[in-house]
Design a protein that fits this description.
Blueprint: H1 15-22, H2 27-34, H3 38-45, H4 53-62, H5 67-74, E1 85-89, E2 92-99, E3 102-109, E4 114-115, E5 124-132, E6 134-139, E7 142-147, E8 151-155, E9 161-164, E10 168-176
Antiparallel strand pairs: 1-2, 2-3, 3-10, 4-9, 5-8, 5-10, 6-7, 6-9
C-alpha cells in the first residue's frame, strides 16, 4: 500500500464495498481473512488510496477472485464501444461484434440456408439462441432442432452445421474458454 498516495482516477475501488456487502461481511471480517488492516480497506473503499499487487491478491482471495479479476472490476471504464460488421454465409446474413472474450452474431436466414464456418472457431463455447423460426444444429453424434426461444450451448471446436428449417432469426455467441494454465 502506498501511504498518503492519492487514488488513481483510472480505478474505482468502491467495488470492494459492493463485494463485501454482497458477501455479508464487515470490514473487520475482510481484514481478518486477508490480513489487510481495516483502515486500509476503508480507505480503498472510499478511493482515498491505491493498492499494491500483494494487497489486490489478498483481497481478491477473500471474494474467491484472482487479482486479475479484481483489477478488471476496479478499472474505471463505463463502456467500450465497437463498430459491428456484417457478412453472408450460404444463405445466412450475419451482423457481428467482438469484445475481449466474446463474439456475438445476429443472423437472418432463409428456409434451407446452411452454414458451416470452422475457420471462425477457436477454443470457445458456442451458444445458439433462435429468436424466430426453426434451426437445426448438427453436431458429430447428435442433431437438435431449435424453435422460437430455444437455445443450445456446445463446445465450438466440435464439427457443427446450422440449417434453417424455416425463415429464421438467431443469435450466436462465441465465449472464449477460461485459460486452464
Amino acid at each position: 500500500m502506498t501511504k498518503g498516495a492519492p487514488a488513481d482516477p483510472s480505478f474505482d475501488f468502491s467495488i470492494l464495498r459492493a463485494l463485501r456487502k454482497r458477501e455479508g461481511l464487515t470490514i473487520g471480517e475482510v481484514s481478518g481473512r486477508s490480513g489487510i488492516s481495516p483502515a486500509v480497506i476503508s480507505k480503498l473503499e472510499r478511493n482515498q488510496t491505491r493498492a499494491e499487487l500483494e494487497t489486490l491478491f489478498r483481497l481478491a482471495r477473500v471474494f474467491g477472485l484472482t487479482a486479475a479479476d479484481l483489477l478488471s472490476l476496479v478499472e474505471r471504464r463505463s463502456a467500450h464501444r465497437v463498430k459491428g460488421s456484417g457478412y453472408r454465409s450460404d444463405g445466412f446474413d450475419f451482423r457481428t461484434v467482438a469484445y475481449g472474450n466474446a463474439r456475438l452474431f445476429f443472423g437472418d436466414a432463409t428456409k434451407g440456408a446452411r452454414t458451416h464456418r470452422p475457420e471462425i472457431h477457436h477454443d470457445d463455447y458456442e451458444i445458439c439462441w433462435v429468436l424466430e423460426g426453426a434451426v437445426e444444429v448438427a453436431l458429430p453424434r447428435e442433431k437438435h432442432v431449435l424453435r422460437d426461444g430455444d437455445a443450445l450451448q456446445f463446445d465450438a471446436v466440435l464439427e457443427h452445421t446450422y440449417r434453417a428449417l424455416a425463415p429464421s432469426r438467431l443469435v450466436i455467441a462465441h465465449i472464449t474458454k477460461a485459460k486452464r494454465f
